[in-house]
Amino acid sequence: MADRYLRFTGTAPGRYLTRRLGLPQPAALTRWSPERPALDGGLLHLTAGRSALGLAPVLARTGMGPAGSGRAAAVVLDATGVRDVEALAEVHAALHPVVRSVAPSGRVVVLGAPLDPADHHQAAAQQALEGFTRSLGKEIGRGRTVNLVRLTDAAAAESTLRFLLSPKSAYVSGQVIEVGAHQETAPPDGDRPLAGRTALVTGAARGIGEAVAETLARDGARVVVLDVPQAEQDARRVAERLGGTALLLDMTSADAGARIAEALPDGLDLLIHNAGITRDRRLVNMPSERWISVLEVNLASVLRTTDALLKDGTLKRGGRVVATASIAGLAGNAGQTNYGASKAGVVGLVRSLAPRALAEHGVTVNAVAPGFIETKMTAAVPLFIREAGRRMNSLAQGGLPADVAETTAWLAHPASGAVNGQVVRVCGQSLLGA
What we know:
By secondary structure, the chain is an alpha/beta fold. The protein contains 15 helices and twelve strands. Strand 4, helix 6 and strand 5 (176-178) form a beta-alpha-beta unit. Helix 7 (207-218) crosses helix 15 (401-412). The model has no long low-confidence stretch (mean pLDDT 95).
């Protein structure tokens, strides 16, 4: 369903009226398209504290040139050298003069260092950057985003910086992303980084799953569209359009993992857990079957199939697991104790499995946590609840399935091996739980 309020605020009368009434003023976001693959404008590189990161060559490879005297489309502040409260003044001094001039739908990326357990002054100063970036994200406006990346190796963070400094990250703001030192060779074809890889997307016959499958196929992957037998017509339609194959399977069946392995004798590179259901009702009115069905589809099936595909080697070394959590699992939501529990469980799965999966199988495990995304499901939500969901984030609008898909594609990228155990909210920086 179209966001009529967003369109209204883009008109002169809309801007005037909403300003006078103190109402939200969302800005139309610049998203990726073949005609607009990059941000319009240059990059401003700033430093706070003493840094030895060697960032300039990596930023040069993002394709963004220096901002020069014009408006910056993006600002990267290297604050990895901030080690005490006094050095935090340099963060203010660097960004205070320029933040107002960042272009609409622009990006601010702050780079921080991991917290040093042996130096509580450094840990305090670096943790302060989180409060700073989240707060700036809530005030910067005009479709601009602010994110914090904690890293030790600039080269390992290249795929993350490329994503955050592009239109693909339009609905990702207020996030803290930790990047390790693990590096992988960038694919030879930057436009089709997933060429030669096989991706399985569950729940891919419609909605967000369809958008994920479409984006991975755009990036070169051979896509297997998995959905329940009842969705056969839609699943085959999506698979045919993307040049992939359909796999009709109930993920809650005990042999789902074995059947996936049988269907993919050459193995699997990308396992995208998107299938999910809701059975909303307040706990006092929730029968056990509603609880069990949501936990079974959203969590138990994800655990079983991931375990099976890792154990039997179907998920190949260098592979990626990306699961779908939700901000409902992070902040909670009335009437969704079952759904919130299942999605919080996905977060627990990611944080526990990620280090072991990488060490034992060479596979990364991450999650995306969507907020209010414009789908047929949210279009059926009552008007006032739907409008609240759209406006209660720093960008004051709902996201699109493509926003979740682009984030998934970044986590699935061959050069994203240093991103592991992360739960990235795709929620426009929701005012709840973010």
